[in-house]
């Protein structure tokens, strides 16, 4: 590879990564009249590791982006009912409306991402596939572009007012900007394994279902092409991975969740089991002079609450809306991008804590069981829980002082012969709540610590 680029181009924005966050950013900027070049190492259609459930808020983002029609043409059924079962209790509810959308979609990433790429291209963004970014270009402490290798192996440089790293958890842009190490991180207590099943059931293909049994969690989400996505999240297992581990752990978890195994009884597994292990939720520094990190490159939550696609689309769009009017003014651009990052931290920290609670990988506590027990006869409580996943309600609305007192009283009544597990659970929850409060008011106060502007080995102007 040559040491110097064979071409130097100019754009308003370079977006690295063309999937959810990248396409949302690019389409929005292009519609605002900005020249956007999007670089991706893949050639679309292309798959990626993902559990790809979109709650109504995520579907609404597809609609705002202008991609919903293309996504729905892929044939995924509208999931209009939510079902959750645990400890002998089952809770059924409908989904809340977000911009008139009251259903969930589970769409495989090959089709979903291709639809998003086509949407960004139709909006006016230039999509360059099979291109791999190798360096950021710096002018003093400011990022002013990227260098990448094209499909023919040529080194090309693009100068831009803003470089957007929408390139996932192993983000090249985050690494080159010195922001790869999170300033807040919580390891998951669960591993994740999932597979697709040919689903002949006609009467259950409108239900998004979840089961908890012991420390295990499993789901069944009907998706496109007549398939069903079934995911299990058993407690995380330490140690090296061996060939066949994913298949074995997946099958073992299904056997520990009899209701999920029954849901799959007439289904036929298609393809291999896929896995995500050593998972950690995090916040990274996501903005600096001339650069920003929407999507998983800057913030990631455990897949147990299925928030990633919605947040990638939502904050990619908001980044573009904030940046588009001020791309020609570096001072105003930096202020806008910093404000965008702080907004994401403020808006996501509560669901971050909620996700980490569900990702503990432990058996259900007495208070959790009491929540399920109460929700079976309390439609309002079930609606709040579904609304939290859909981002129309806040976790704080579930555990109000009055409701917490009622749940505690109920748990103590059902453990009246031996209240010690309930008392231990209460003490544990109080400690956890205090720790979350401290984290929100310090590390996640909305103003992340500054990151270095560049790292050794990056290109300079």
Automatic annotation (TrEMBL):
Organism for this UniProt entry: Nocardia fusca
Source organism superkingdom: Bacteria
PANTHER family assigned: CONDITIONED MEDIUM FACTOR RECEPTOR 1, GERANYLGERANYL DIPHOSPHATE REDUCTASE
FAD-binding domain residues: 11-321
EC id: 1.-.-.-
UniProt-recorded name of the protein: NAD(P)/FAD-dependent oxidoreductase
Classification via InterPro entries: FAD-bd (IPR002938), FAD/NAD-bd_sf (IPR036188), Geranylgeranyl_reductase (IPR050407)
Tagged with keyword Oxidoreductase: yes
Alphabetized UniProt keyword annotations: Oxidoreductase
Compositionally biased spans, kind Low complexity: 446-461
């Amino acid at each position: 590879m040559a040491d110097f680029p064979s071409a130097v181009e100019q754009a308003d924005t370079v977006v690295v990564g063309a999937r959810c966050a990248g396409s949302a950013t690019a389409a929005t900027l292009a519609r605002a009249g900005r020249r956007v070049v999007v670089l991706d190492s893949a050639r679309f259609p292309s798959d990626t590791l993902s559990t790809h459930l979109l709650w109504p808020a995520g579907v609404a983002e597809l609609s705002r982006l202008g991609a919903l029609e293309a996504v729905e043409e892929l044939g995924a059924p509208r999931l209009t009912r939510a079902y959750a079962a645990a400890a002998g209790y089952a809770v059924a509810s409908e989904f809340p409306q977000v911009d008139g959308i009251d259903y969930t979609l589970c769409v495989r990433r090959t089709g979903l991402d291709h639809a998003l790429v086509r949407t960004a291209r139709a909006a006016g963004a230039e999509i360059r596939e099979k291109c791999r970014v190798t360096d950021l270009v710096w002018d003093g402490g400011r990022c002013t572009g990227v260098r990448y290798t094209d499909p023919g192996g040529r080194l090309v440089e693009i100068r831009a007012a803003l470089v957007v790293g929408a390139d996932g958890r192993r983000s090249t842009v985050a690494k080159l900007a010195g922001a790869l190490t999170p300033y807040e991180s919580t390891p998951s207590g669960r591993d994740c394994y999932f597979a697709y099943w040919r689903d002949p059931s006609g009467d259950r293909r409108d239900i998004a279902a979840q089961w908890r049994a012991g420390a295990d969690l499993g789901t069944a989400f009907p998706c496109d092409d007549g398939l069903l996505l079934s995911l299990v999240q058993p407690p995380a297992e330490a140690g090296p991975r061996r060939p066949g581990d994913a298949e074995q752990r997946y099958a073992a978890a299904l056997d520990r969740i009899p209701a999920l195994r029954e849901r799959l009884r007439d289904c036929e597994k298609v393809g291999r089991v896929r896995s995500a292990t050593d998972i950690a939720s995090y916040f990274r520094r996501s903005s600096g002079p001339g650069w920003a990190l929407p999507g998983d490159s800057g913030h990631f939550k455990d897949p147990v609450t299925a928030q990633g696609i919605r947040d990638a689309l939502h904050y990619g769009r908001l980044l573009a809306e904030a940046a588009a009017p001020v791309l020609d003014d570096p001072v105003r651009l930096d202020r806008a991008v910093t404000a965008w990052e702080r907004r994401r931290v403020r808006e996501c920290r509560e669901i971050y804590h909620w996700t980490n609670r569900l990702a503990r990988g432990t058996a259900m506590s007495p208070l959790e069981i009491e929540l399920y027990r109460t929700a079976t006869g309390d439609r309002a409580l079930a609606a709040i829980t579904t609304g939290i996943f859909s981002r129309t309600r806040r976790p704080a609305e579930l555990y109000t002082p009055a409701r917490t007192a009622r749940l505690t009283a109920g748990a103590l009544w059902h453990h009246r012969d031996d209240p010690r597990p309930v008392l231990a659970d209460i003490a544990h929850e109080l400690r956890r709540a205090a720790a979350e409060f401290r984290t929100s008011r310090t590390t996640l106060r909305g103003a992340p610590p500054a990151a270095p502007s560049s790292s050794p080995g990056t290109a300079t102007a």
